[in-house]
Amino acid sequence: QVQLVESGGGLVQPGGSLRLSCAASGFTFSRFGVTWYRQAPGKGRELVATETRPGGTTNYTDSVKGRFTISRDNDKNTVYLQMNSLTSEDTALYYCYVRLPAGSRTYDYWGRGTRVTVSS
Hints:
The chain is mainly beta. The chain contains no helices and eleven strands. The chain has strands at 3-7, 10-12, 18-25, 35-39, 45-51, 58-60, 68-73, 78-83, 92-102, 105-110, 114-118. The strands form two sheets. Strands 2, 4, 5, 6, 9, 10 and 11 form a seven-stranded mixed beta sheet that branches. Strand 5 and strand 6 (58-60) form a beta hairpin. The radius of gyration is 14 Å and the shape is globular.
C-alpha cells in the first residue's frame, strides 16, 4: 500500500535550518510529484512547496520563497524539504502529500507529519 513517512523535524532556534524527508513506498515514485504542506497551531493547512512533476517546475508559498527548497532522490524514493532562515512563523506540523490515479479516479495520500518548532 501507499505510504508516506516524514522525518527530520525537531526544535531549532530562529535563523537555523532543518531538512525534512518524506520516504515514499507503494507506488512508482519517479512518476509523480510530491507536495509539502504544513499546519500551524490554530491555523488551517497550507501548501508550502510542490513539484508540478518529478524533476519539473517547483512552486512555493510566498512566505518561504528563497528560504525553502524541495528536491528529490528517485534512487531513495525520497523527497526533501530544505528549510533555512527559520522563524517562529514556520512552526507547524509538516506533511507530505501525493495524488495518484487509479482507473478513472484519483486518490489522495498523506503522511502523518513531522513537527517543526522554531523557538529560542
